[in-house]
Amino acid sequence: MFKLITIIVAIIAVILGFVINHYLQRVPDVPKLDYQRWWSDSVRPSVEDESIRPFKIEFNDTMVLDLKNRLKNRRPFRRPLDGMQSEYGINTIYLEKILDYWLKKYDFKGRAERLNSFPHYKTRIQGLDIHYIRAAPKKQRAKTVKVLPILLLHGWPSSSKEFDSIIPALTTPRSDYDFVFEVVAADLPGFGYSEGTNKPGLNPVQIGIIMRNLMKRLGFDKFYIQAGDWGAQAGSHMSTLFPEEILGFHTNMPVSSRTISSVKLLLGSLFPSWLDPKHSERIYPLKNFMKYIIRESGYFHLQATKPDTIGAALTDTPVGMAAYIMEKMGICSNRDQVNTEHSGLANLNIDDVLDTITIMWANEQITTSVRIYAEGFNWPELGIVHNIPTMVPTAALNFRYEVVYQPDWVLRDKFPNLVRSTTLDFGGHFASMHTPKELVDDIFASVKEFIKFHEKK
Amino acid sequence: MFKLITIIVAIIAVILGFVINHYLQRVPDVPKLDYQRWWSDSVRPSVEDESIRPFKIEFNDTMVLDLKNRLKNRRPFRRPLDGMQSEYGINTIYLEKILDYWLKKYDFKGRAERLNSFPHYKTRIQGLDIHYIRAAPKKQRAKTVKVLPILLLHGWPSSSKEFDSIIPALTTPRSDYDFVFEVVAADLPGFGYSEGTNKPGLNPVQIGIIMRNLMKRLGFDKFYIQAGDWGAQAGSHMSTLFPEEILGFHTNMPVSSRTISSVKLLLGSLFPSWLDPKHSERIYPLKNFMKYIIRESGYFHLQATKPDTIGAALTDTPVGMAAYIMEKMGICSNRDQVNTEHSGLANLNIDDVLDTITIMWANEQITTSVRIYAEGFNWPELGIVHNIPTMVPTAALNFRYEVVYQPDWVLRDKFPNLVRSTTLDFGGHFASMHTPKELVDDIFASVKEFIKFHEKK
Fold this sequence. Notes:
Two copies of one chain form a homodimer. The first copy, chain A, has helices spanning about 1-25, 60-70, 90-105, 110-115, 165-170, 205-215, 230-240, 260-270, 270-275, 285-295, 300-305, 305-315, 320-330, 350-360, 365-375, 380-385, 410-415, 430-435, 435-455; strands at about 50-55, 120-125, 130-135, 145-155, 180-185, 225, 245-250, 395-400, 420-425. By secondary structure, the first copy, chain A, is an alpha/beta fold. Chain A has a domain at about 120-265 and about 380-455: 3-Layer(aba) Sandwich (Rossmann fold). In chain A, strand 6, helix 7 and strand 7 form a beta-alpha-beta unit. In chain A, helix 8 (about 260-270) runs antiparallel to helix 17 (about 410-415) and helix 11 packs across helix 12. The longest helix of chain A has 23 residues, at about 1-25. Chain A is globular, with a radius of gyration of 23 Å. At the A-B interface, helix 1, helix 10, helix 11, helix 12 and helix 13 of A face helix 1, helix 10, helix 11, helix 12 and helix 13 of B.
């Protein structure tokens, strides 16, 4: 019997090897895409508005008053089931505490002013008003210190706000590096203060194109990228479509979505510790990983299939929006804390969390932002671009509680020039809020590797 | 090569046959369950309150005023993407129309009075106040006409209200049958006007026990059941645990959840038309069925994993609750109409839909009701009871757009005494609202078969 199984497995392995070699390794051609695709309702003018307009974040009194009235007027929650903390979802006793803080203690004016310590702008790209922070190094610096442009890209439910804790450190020269950054932190279209579209198809490939055109508008023909979450998808696509323009791609959510990578991860489950001795427990046994993914991906499933429903449902309730968003921000910061009241949220600064939710609320971006989950599938260019490796030098930073983890031998399918990979036993998905110092250190160290990579060529 | 594959398939088939025969057909013992399990926060008294209290449904002024204020105070929705109807979820232009109707035209008082045309009661079962309608035949009838007790069980997001269109017909004698029904339509605990629990574990098996004890309280030691959705799960478990008490089980959502049934459905995908020539397109090709299930099960995934999050999120917004519930009521009535503005909802009477949502809102049952999706998994008794066939005579009524479909050769795994099976090419999940006449006709015809079945024994 055992012999028979061995023979069957061997036959299957040979067939699989054949399939992998002949089909999965095939690299498609770069698709022909319109890099000036128009996303506005209005007709494209013959001469486009290329102006750059200074912008200030404002949590205006009307919005704040209405928000506070809604918070005051909330209905009582059902309490958690006996003996449960966050196993059935957000703990409503904890939620009450946060809502009370938002209502009574959160400093709307002060928090907006804090965000305004950076220079904000808006400019029109492909028909959409795109908001971004552009922060140059402020401090006096030696002439030998180069200023390098870096684009920071956030994901859901964030905005450029996510990066406020790391921008000062990125724009401050350090004694251990001969370069410093000029930072552009943009809100993805439909997020934060960037305009959403009414046209279907604004997927991460198309968002990447908009972000590249933003950088061109700002005069940056070559630049670095740091990105996580959906921003990392956009950044990965930018690296694939514009390899001559992206000097290096640093990501705290490194993922290869090539078909071969999925097959390898599946096969890897047969020999987990051999393939990734140190960190195999982050994905293997696959059964545990899948259990966790199923437990935590309900919001993803809903947003990828019915974004307009959950968008409409959360449109007029700051209470609901906060409950829905905070549950996810907590879990993604530490998925092993569902047995606590805060379910991981206490790893983040509560003012940072409330900034994020207040920005989402004030700009009424819940529907436009969750649509990215639906647009992130089913458009033909996505599968094609995912399956093309990029030669752009790449650095992977794996925090402990990042949503997914792929070992380097899988990442290299997409990023053959993976020049640096760091795996930490702490931290989570919202790295710039959770572990800003470690993130900044890794960006500096990685860009040094990117420079070396280009010097070697 | 083809020969090799044939040999491999044959070997796998033999192994599978062995596994199926020896493991999957095995019937577990009925688990020992506490049929008086206590679900209240309060300590069980030495003498339980067994009183039956008349009850009236009231949409009181305070509730209605607050609800209307919230509806008036709603924020604007994002419009659907260009060219889309309901492909991204609820169509917010249509949603606006329904919300305006709810605010300006829905007759709160009149609708409550309509529900009060039936006699309503509450009684305390296992510590929880359970609400039900008990409707005896009103009209004069011949002495030869027997009165048979039938329990009607609804699912999410419904309540006993779901049955108001069929109760009059079930309690009216017909010339073609020598029996008529005394109807008990109960709200499941945590739904409608029935109290929810604060204890974990109130799954469909436990709900079935409560419903059986309700019927005992009302003096019905033997009775029929008609049920759909989660009510059908509870009804199936009642048939399994109390086969001597359930005279027949009529369901418009017939499902066998035995392991062997899943295996058979999977294998059936190899020869779909041979196994179910008429209706194979309702599940095969499995790829299409899975696509539809993935497209429509985001809410299920979320509710099964994070019920307290979506519950908290919808607690204070009638707008959100309506959007979220209506999308599902529409799709489940006709899943092929996502390319319309109403997405299937126009198949139902809008007052029926708004009764359902108003009851959910007024009783603040969103969290307790969605918890059934989480409780419906992971408790050991569920898998055991699912895997025990019941000898209770059963009738299956398959409407065209029911969420799932299983051919009779699969249903018989769980219901060997499937005495009637009807498959219609119209209708949907909310049968008693959508196609009340056909549902009632099938109940009468099925109960006649149940009676014949018992006479033959």
